[in-house]
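Limitations
The structure tokens in this dataset are predictions for the assembled complex, not deposited experimental models. Users should treat interface geometry with appropriate caution, especially where small molecules or nucleic acid strands are included. An illustrative entry is reproduced here so readers can see what is and is not provided.
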Amino acid sequence: MKYVIIGNSAAGIGAAEKIRQLDKTGEIIIVSSEPHHTYSRPLISYLLQGKTDEQRMKYRDDAFYERNKCILLAGKTVTRICPYEKYIELDDGETIPYDKLLVATGSSPFVPPIEGLDTVSDKFTFMSLADARKIQAALGREKKVLILGAGLIGLKCAEGILDKVGEITVVDLAPRILSSILDDEGAAIVKAHLESKGIKFILSASVKNFDGNIARLSNDESVGFDILIIAVGVRPNTKLLAGIAEIDRGIIINDKCETSAKDIYAAGDCTQTTDVSSGQSKIMALLPNAYMQGECAGANMAGGDMSFDKAIPMNAVGFFGLHIITAGTYQGDVYIDKRNGEYKKLFYSPDKLNGYILIKNVEKAGIYTSLIRERTPLSSIDFSLICEKPGLMAFTREDRSRILGGAVL
Amino acid sequence: MKRVYVNEKWCLGCHLCEYYCAFAYTGEKDMARALKGVRINPRIKLEEKDEITFAVSCRHCKEPLCVKGCITGALSVTDGVITINRDKCISCFTCILCCPYGAISYTDDKTVLKCELCIKTADKTPACVKGCPNGAIVFEERG
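Predicted assembly:
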């Protein structure tokens, strides 16, 4: 059996590990545009911050490919998939046949077509190790940085470089920061924290045009800068499957991680699948889902039978020591707890937890995540107790004994 | 594989498992000296409410959501035991987001803590099991 995996991040690695677990002899080829050993993409901000280095940020150890008998073709880009003849074509003209193919191509930074962007000399996106290296080289104590986008990528970048530059201004079209994971009130808490560290925000504003090192904003303010970082969002890399498999915004996959094309699977940030907390089909570009989709695809590619039907949006992130964990969909009735400077919101329907936001105290958050993911009937637990404090105490003694591994009653 | 199991019925709520756990990771010889006046950070933790008490520690799951979700590759499985590579961990707490048991915690300085099964000792029994005065915590194979 010949397995080809396009992509060398979480989804691709998840697939390779699972395939090798089930098929000891099949050939596994991993093709990656980036010329690197697999690395943890979210760590690029920690790299800038000096909290990790290129060796420690490797997602798997140095012996990974050898141990798993994987051939890594790094620095090569797939230009075409030929689904009938079952081979892929690389940018150097080489063709590689496959029996089972995984598309785990991830996403790319979206660069909006802003007038005058071509007049900006030091402009970067923040998605890859290469981006991080370029930004690192451009940093300087006197430099002013303008970050477009107050999402996770933009703000992690801000945290990473804050003490290495003169000042940072973050501009976002949305009226609040981290708009994809926080509500207004939670966002205000995190924003105040970031402001206390010295980051400036201009919200509900966009850049009308650039003129060299000056950005003119929609609110008529002007911001001077030396370094521009564009972090307004990402787009799934779906191009290779255009005309081959069903694509909406992302590549459509079922719970086996199969695309609509025979013997072609997809996993990770390039895909779109059902969010079980809302029932909606969406792109959930986050690392745990990517790994688990890759693993699921790998199992099925290797003749196993695995489903991944529990994807939900979820994030754990910290900024300067303030931790945030969120998951699910913010719909339904709301339980709020703001004691002790903490911030907790739980969103629930009559019998299901749909989502939550925790800021500062994030202990045992996974118990809430599990209630969402498993669609646990809230009538089967002590919901008022679990609202107050996540714990297995809220389950019945029988459920707890099952959950904790069948302790003899 | 042998795992730590807690029999809630026999748990006295004495917290000794927490102390033995914290002590096991200090590398010290004398427990009183090692833990006196110290705010302990055990990897096994009691849940308690009214008359009910039970201890929770890492289940060392066969399909560990924490390992699969770990964004850095710091969590891995070796011979069934889930361990954490502190060199690689950057305290993002994605493991805490993922663990359905609430079995992964963190210290004041944001170090991630979990049971790494302290069985490399002479009698190959985890400290919490050895220290439980009522036999409520056992280390056994349950398939």
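Some entries come with short summary sentences. For this one: Chain B has a mean pLDDT of 93.
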